[in-house]
Design goal:
- By secondary structure, this protein is mainly α.
- The protein has one domain.
- The chain is built from eight helices and no strands.
- α3 packs across α4, α3 runs antiparallel to α6 and α3 runs parallel beside α8.
Length: 205
Protein backbone atom coordinates (compact mmCIF):
# COMPACT_ATOMS: atom_id res chain seq x y z
CA UNK A 1 0.00 0.00 0.00
CA UNK A 2 2.78 2.44 0.89
CA UNK A 3 4.69 1.60 -2.28
CA UNK A 4 1.67 2.10 -4.55
CA UNK A 5 0.76 5.34 -2.80
CA UNK A 6 4.33 6.61 -3.13
CA UNK A 7 4.53 5.92 -6.86
CA UNK A 8 1.16 7.56 -7.49
CA UNK A 9 1.97 10.69 -5.48
CA UNK A 10 5.48 10.94 -6.92
CA UNK A 11 4.08 10.72 -10.45
CA UNK A 12 1.66 13.53 -9.52
CA UNK A 13 4.63 15.66 -8.49
CA UNK A 14 3.64 15.91 -4.83
CA UNK A 15 7.10 15.03 -3.47
CA UNK A 16 10.43 13.48 -4.44
CA UNK A 17 11.86 10.07 -3.66
CA UNK A 18 14.31 11.68 -1.22
CA UNK A 19 11.47 13.31 0.70
CA UNK A 20 9.66 9.97 0.92
CA UNK A 21 12.76 8.10 2.13
CA UNK A 22 13.61 10.73 4.75
CA UNK A 23 10.07 10.80 6.13
CA UNK A 24 9.87 6.99 6.01
CA UNK A 25 13.10 6.66 8.00
CA UNK A 26 12.03 9.35 10.48
CA UNK A 27 9.15 7.08 11.43
CA UNK A 28 10.89 3.74 10.91
CA UNK A 29 14.23 4.19 12.72
CA UNK A 30 12.88 5.16 16.19
CA UNK A 31 10.35 2.33 15.97
CA UNK A 32 13.04 -0.15 14.91
CA UNK A 33 15.32 1.00 17.74
CA UNK A 34 12.55 0.53 20.30
CA UNK A 35 11.35 -2.85 19.06
CA UNK A 36 14.90 -4.19 18.69
CA UNK A 37 15.65 -2.99 22.25
CA UNK A 38 12.59 -4.80 23.62
CA UNK A 39 13.50 -7.95 21.68
CA UNK A 40 17.13 -7.72 22.85
CA UNK A 41 16.17 -7.36 26.52
CA UNK A 42 13.85 -10.37 26.43
CA UNK A 43 16.16 -12.68 24.46
CA UNK A 44 19.26 -11.60 26.38
CA UNK A 45 17.66 -12.54 29.68
CA UNK A 46 15.93 -15.72 28.47
CA UNK A 47 19.00 -17.12 26.68
CA UNK A 48 21.31 -16.04 29.50
CA UNK A 49 23.87 -14.17 27.42
CA UNK A 50 26.91 -12.37 28.79
CA UNK A 51 25.64 -9.91 31.47
CA UNK A 52 27.93 -7.02 30.56
CA UNK A 53 26.34 -3.75 29.41
CA UNK A 54 28.76 -3.09 26.55
CA UNK A 55 28.15 -6.59 25.18
CA UNK A 56 24.41 -6.09 25.47
CA UNK A 57 24.74 -2.81 23.55
CA UNK A 58 26.59 -4.60 20.73
CA UNK A 59 23.87 -7.27 20.69
CA UNK A 60 21.19 -4.56 20.48
CA UNK A 61 23.08 -2.88 17.64
CA UNK A 62 23.24 -6.19 15.76
CA UNK A 63 19.49 -6.77 16.14
CA UNK A 64 18.76 -3.21 14.97
CA UNK A 65 21.02 -3.60 11.92
CA UNK A 66 19.23 -6.82 10.98
CA UNK A 67 15.79 -5.20 11.31
CA UNK A 68 16.91 -2.10 9.40
CA UNK A 69 18.46 -4.23 6.64
CA UNK A 70 15.31 -6.34 6.44
CA UNK A 71 13.29 -3.18 5.84
CA UNK A 72 15.70 -2.21 3.07
CA UNK A 73 15.47 -5.63 1.44
CA UNK A 74 11.69 -5.33 1.55
CA UNK A 75 11.83 -1.87 -0.04
CA UNK A 76 14.02 -2.82 -2.97
CA UNK A 77 12.38 -6.19 -3.63
CA UNK A 78 8.92 -4.61 -3.65
CA UNK A 79 10.22 -1.92 -5.99
CA UNK A 80 11.51 -4.57 -8.43
CA UNK A 81 8.59 -6.99 -8.20
CA UNK A 82 5.08 -5.56 -8.03
CA UNK A 83 3.64 -8.92 -7.00
CA UNK A 84 3.96 -9.09 -3.19
CA UNK A 85 3.87 -12.89 -3.11
CA UNK A 86 6.77 -13.14 -5.55
CA UNK A 87 8.75 -10.51 -3.64
CA UNK A 88 8.15 -12.40 -0.39
CA UNK A 89 9.28 -15.70 -1.92
CA UNK A 90 12.49 -14.15 -3.26
CA UNK A 91 13.09 -12.52 0.14
CA UNK A 92 12.85 -15.93 1.82
CA UNK A 93 15.35 -17.41 -0.64
CA UNK A 94 17.72 -14.46 -0.09
CA UNK A 95 17.49 -14.72 3.70
CA UNK A 96 18.03 -18.49 3.59
CA UNK A 97 21.16 -17.94 1.51
CA UNK A 98 22.38 -15.36 4.02
CA UNK A 99 21.90 -17.75 6.94
CA UNK A 100 23.56 -20.69 5.20
CA UNK A 101 26.62 -18.59 4.35
CA UNK A 102 26.90 -16.84 7.73
CA UNK A 103 29.61 -19.20 8.98
CA UNK A 104 27.70 -21.38 11.44
CA UNK A 105 26.88 -24.31 9.13
CA UNK A 106 30.14 -24.13 7.22
CA UNK A 107 33.21 -22.00 7.77
CA UNK A 108 33.31 -18.98 5.47
CA UNK A 109 36.94 -19.68 4.63
CA UNK A 110 36.00 -23.12 3.23
CA UNK A 111 33.30 -21.83 0.87
CA UNK A 112 33.99 -21.82 -2.88
CA UNK A 113 35.78 -18.67 -4.02
CA UNK A 114 32.73 -17.18 -5.75
CA UNK A 115 30.58 -17.61 -2.64
CA UNK A 116 33.30 -16.11 -0.44
CA UNK A 117 33.33 -12.96 -2.56
CA UNK A 118 29.52 -12.91 -2.58
CA UNK A 119 29.59 -13.14 1.21
CA UNK A 120 31.24 -9.72 1.42
CA UNK A 121 27.92 -8.26 0.32
CA UNK A 122 25.80 -10.16 2.86
CA UNK A 123 25.34 -8.52 6.25
CA UNK A 124 24.95 -11.88 8.02
CA UNK A 125 28.65 -12.70 7.48
CA UNK A 126 30.11 -9.88 9.63
CA UNK A 127 27.18 -10.04 12.06
CA UNK A 128 27.75 -13.73 12.81
CA UNK A 129 31.37 -12.91 13.64
CA UNK A 130 30.31 -10.00 15.87
CA UNK A 131 27.77 -12.12 17.76
CA UNK A 132 30.17 -15.00 18.42
CA UNK A 133 33.10 -12.84 19.52
CA UNK A 134 30.84 -10.57 21.57
CA UNK A 135 29.50 -13.53 23.53
CA UNK A 136 32.49 -15.85 23.85
CA UNK A 137 35.64 -13.70 23.93
CA UNK A 138 37.41 -14.00 27.28
CA UNK A 139 35.02 -16.66 28.62
CA UNK A 140 36.20 -19.93 30.18
CA UNK A 141 35.20 -22.71 32.55
CA UNK A 142 32.36 -24.11 30.46
CA UNK A 143 30.55 -27.14 31.86
CA UNK A 144 28.79 -29.82 29.80
CA UNK A 145 26.16 -31.94 31.53
CA UNK A 146 25.59 -35.60 30.73
CA UNK A 147 26.18 -36.80 27.19
CA UNK A 148 27.31 -33.34 26.06
CA UNK A 149 30.70 -33.94 27.69
CA UNK A 150 33.63 -35.91 26.32
CA UNK A 151 34.45 -39.34 27.85
CA UNK A 152 36.93 -37.63 30.20
CA UNK A 153 34.18 -35.29 31.46
CA UNK A 154 35.49 -32.17 29.77
CA UNK A 155 33.56 -30.00 27.31
CA UNK A 156 34.45 -30.24 23.61
CA UNK A 157 35.15 -26.51 23.93
CA UNK A 158 36.20 -25.43 27.42
CA UNK A 159 36.91 -21.78 26.59
CA UNK A 160 35.27 -19.10 24.50
CA UNK A 161 38.40 -18.72 22.41
CA UNK A 162 38.12 -22.36 21.34
CA UNK A 163 34.58 -21.70 20.11
CA UNK A 164 35.77 -18.64 18.17
CA UNK A 165 38.67 -20.58 16.67
CA UNK A 166 36.41 -23.48 15.70
CA UNK A 167 34.31 -21.07 13.62
CA UNK A 168 37.45 -19.49 12.10
CA UNK A 169 36.58 -16.03 13.40
CA UNK A 170 39.30 -13.53 14.30
CA UNK A 171 38.92 -11.38 17.42
CA UNK A 172 41.29 -8.79 15.94
CA UNK A 173 38.75 -7.97 13.23
CA UNK A 174 35.81 -7.51 15.64
CA UNK A 175 35.39 -3.75 15.16
CA UNK A 176 36.08 -4.09 11.46
CA UNK A 177 33.14 -6.53 11.31
CA UNK A 178 30.95 -4.08 13.27
CA UNK A 179 31.85 -1.28 10.85
CA UNK A 180 31.28 -3.50 7.83
CA UNK A 181 27.83 -4.50 9.12
CA UNK A 182 26.89 -0.83 9.59
CA UNK A 183 28.20 0.02 6.11
CA UNK A 184 26.25 -2.83 4.51
CA UNK A 185 23.05 -1.77 6.29
CA UNK A 186 23.52 1.76 4.89
CA UNK A 187 24.34 0.35 1.45
CA UNK A 188 21.15 -1.73 1.38
CA UNK A 189 19.11 1.40 2.11
CA UNK A 190 20.98 3.29 -0.63
CA UNK A 191 20.14 0.51 -3.11
CA UNK A 192 16.48 0.73 -2.08
CA UNK A 193 16.53 4.51 -2.61
CA UNK A 194 18.09 4.20 -6.08
CA UNK A 195 15.57 1.57 -7.17
CA UNK A 196 12.65 3.62 -5.86
CA UNK A 197 13.98 6.75 -7.54
CA UNK A 198 14.65 5.28 -10.99
CA UNK A 199 11.97 2.62 -11.36
CA UNK A 200 10.49 3.74 -14.69
CA UNK A 201 7.05 2.10 -14.48
CA UNK A 202 4.74 2.90 -11.55
CA UNK A 203 2.77 0.00 -10.09
CA UNK A 204 -0.81 -0.51 -11.25
CA UNK A 205 -3.35 1.19 -9.00
Amino acid sequence: MERNLFYRERSDGLYSTAAFCVSYMAIEVPFDLLTSLMYSIVTYVVIGLNPIFTRFFVYWLVIFLLVFSGESVGLFLCSIFFDIGLANTIAMVFLSLCLLMAGFFRSISTLPLVLRYLNYGLITAPISQVLVINEFYGESGFTCPGSQALPNGQCPYSTGQQVIDALNFNVDTFWYAVGLACALAAFYRLVAFVLLAFKPIPPPL
